[in-house]
Amino acid sequence: MKKEQRLAAEKFLLQQIYDENPDFVDATMEAFSISRSTVYNYINTLQNNGELERVGGSMPYRVLYKTTRFTVDTTREHSEDRMFSRDIAPLLAELPLNVQKIWRYAFTAMMNNALEHAKASAIVCVVNRSRLCTIIGILDNGIGIFRRIQQDQRDANGETPTVAEAASLLYAGGYSSAPDTHAGEGIFFTSRLMDHFAIRSDYQLFTPNAEDDDGESGGERFRGTAVQMALGNDSTRELGEVMATYIDPEEGFVHTEIPVARFFGGDFPISRSEARRLLSALKDFRTAELNFSDIDEVGRDFAHELFSVAAGQYPTLRLTVKNAAPAVLGTLRRAGYAE
Questions:
Q1: Residues 105-150: pLDDT tens digits?
Q2: What are 176-229's pLDDT values in tens digits?
Q3: What architecture is the 66-239 domain classified under in CATH?
Q4: How buried is 145 (Cβ within 10 angstroms: 0-12 exposed, 13-18 middle, 19+ buried)?
Q5: Domain spans of the chain?
Q6: Which of 54, 187, 225, 270 has the largest count of CB atoms under 10 Å?
């Protein structure tokens, strides 16, 4: 088998193991028309290369990562772009250009947050690489992102939101604790560029994707802020295309989307105050898509505030609905929602 075909077969095999397909050997044999002994030769090669580890059990192997770790001294380091060029870019040099561009945006946006908002004395960056994907974690020992939002909201409005409510302010994008110098777009766009994205602080987890919620938000407290980002090395995603989905060339960041269930912490929204909190996060946008996945019902007061009252208060805001269950859609329609 030619080198290109062998590398493709090895990568396919790694993916099958990563996906925990118990028939990974047969799947590789069938996909590349190779023998069982050849597949096990590949497995031995991957083990020798440090890409695969035997662990036993029903899934006898697991994919290994090469780990690079460095610590940022915030009294000396202030330029996230230099950090990327010096510490991150060399590790990603063999990846496709579109993937490198996405990582440059994501790393610099999240590192800037840690440098300028966290009030941290130290930041640790961990890069885990395999042939399949790259995972980058940025952890700081600062105030904690949600605690910072709580303080800002208390100073601005005289009312302190819960930690979950503080996290919900990040879903729409555009929220910043320093609006005069930051647009507050970094977390929103980074979360849309990545395959997996999560922020953990205190006991709270922020992630736009339900599949990234490990259900351990009530576990051990993380002091500071931990950001984890993962992207497939062969991703076809383009930085410019993702940005164009939400940005108008003349008006800027005008379209957003909200995972409603995550915005409300898994509860179904029922009250007018919940609708007002959601609308407050959307008031500066022209269009917003509300994703009602994992919500079986909504309150009539919530729906009325959202689609009847808001029509007069936010005449330039257009709301659209996605993945609404029949009962939810019926309540929204009766409240004034028109598809």
A1: 999 999 999 998 888 889 999 999 999 999 999 999 998 999 999 9
A2: 766 666 677 999 999 999 999 999 998 899 998 877 776 544 456 678 999 999
A3: 2-Layer Sandwich (3.30)
A4: buried
A5: 3-63, 66-239, 254-334
A6: 225
